[in-house]
Amino acid sequence: MVGAGIFGAPAAVAALAGPWSPIAALVAGLGVLSIVLCFAEVGSRFDESGGPYLYAREAFGRHVGFAVGWLHVWTRLLSAAAILNVFVAYLVPLLPWAGTPTGRLAVMTGVVVLVTAVNVRGVRLAAWSVDALTIAKLLPLALLLLLGLPRVSGHVLATQAVAEVLWTDAVLLIVFLYGGFESAVIAASETRDPRRHTAFALLTALAVVTATYSLVQLVVVGVLPHAATLETPVAAALEAVAGPLGALLGSLAALVSGYGWLTGFAMMTPRISSRWGSGVSCPGRFPGSTLASVRPTLQ
User: Which domains does the chain have, with CATH numbers?
Assistant: First the structure.
């Protein structure tokens, strides 16, 4: 769930909601909770791969499942494009050549090739990579909260005032940052006891991410005057609380986070289409409903 978006979005959210942007992050998390609860319930009933495609197909038929599967694929592809752009934005201060047209193309191509190579080697290496990168990207955010929360200033918050708080736009923008939980259930058949662990994993992840996003947003608008004007707000916030080393750490964290998200994206997305063409049943789990029967094979 935590990709490079959190390292760039706080400025855009501040432009929409000003000093109220941390509340917008919390509201978005509560809204996403209703969806996560559905995934937690349904995910606990299947041990097959497929995720949203599988659930939609079993509940509503193969045509709806097919549409949901393709929608999920395109959503992930467009999200990957957004993450790559944030990746380049944070790389430019460290490597200015990456800001040129040739540099952008080379960096984006290189990242895609690298994450593809890791996943071609196998799911175990990809999973280990995602785990290690998750820890590496959360540590700088934890440092930002530890050093930044005591320095949140009401005077700085006042500089974030906007003419009109656009709640809907701000919440919808932050909802994008919560995307990714739906991918965690795609490879259920390759995990241990998914019926038992899915709900706990999803709800725990959402709680941690909601707290992280809300507090990071608070630190950004609480320590950086006019945060909406910044392109790399998290790196700037770390610089404000930890000096030049903090800025470097923030940029590296954004790069690691983006790469980690893309590795997980490359691991999960192909497993959506791997389920197309195989029928899956959930006998005995949904008695009296269409979910208890085997759906026809999608040709």
Answer: 4-278 (1.20.1740.10)
Q: What is the pLDDT of residues 4-46, one digit of tens each?
A: 778 888 999 999 999 999 999 999 999 999 999 998 888 888 8
pTM comes to 0.77
Cα–Cα distance, 257 to 129 (Å, whole number): 11
The secondary structure of residue 243, as a DSSP letter, is -
pLDDT at 268: 78
Between CA 90 and CA 107, with CA 123 as vertex, the angle to 5 degrees is 25
What is the Cα gyration radius of the chain? 20
Amino acid at 20: W
Q: Residues 6 or more apart from 240 whose CB is under 8 A from it? A: 148, 151, 223, 224, 246
Q: What is the per-residue pLDDT across 182-226, written as a single tens digit (0 to 9) for each?
A: 777 887 777 788 888 888 989 999 999 999 999 999 999 999 998
Q: What is the pLDDT of residues 231-282, one digit of tens each?
A: 888 888 988 888 888 888 888 888 888 888 888 888 877 777 665 544 444 4
Per-residue tokens: 229: 């004007």
Residue 112, both tokens = 């895609």
C-alpha 162/C-alpha 46 separation (Å) is: 47
Alpha-carbon distance of 149 to 59, in angstroms, equals: 45
pLDDT of amino acid 254: 81
Amino acid at 293: S
Counting other chains too, the contacts that 203-206 makes at CB distance below 8 Å and 24 or more residues apart are: 203/36, 203/37, 203/40, 205/1, 205/181, 206/1, 206/29, 206/32, 206/33, 206/36, 206/178, 206/181
**Residue 103 · residue 97 · CB < 8 Å:** yes
Q: Is 279 helix (H, G, I), strand (E, B) or coil?
A: coil
Going by C-alpha positions, the residue among 137, 138, 148, 136 that lies closest to residue 239 is: 148
Read off the amino acid at residue 57: R
Tokens of residue 246, six digits: 């903090």
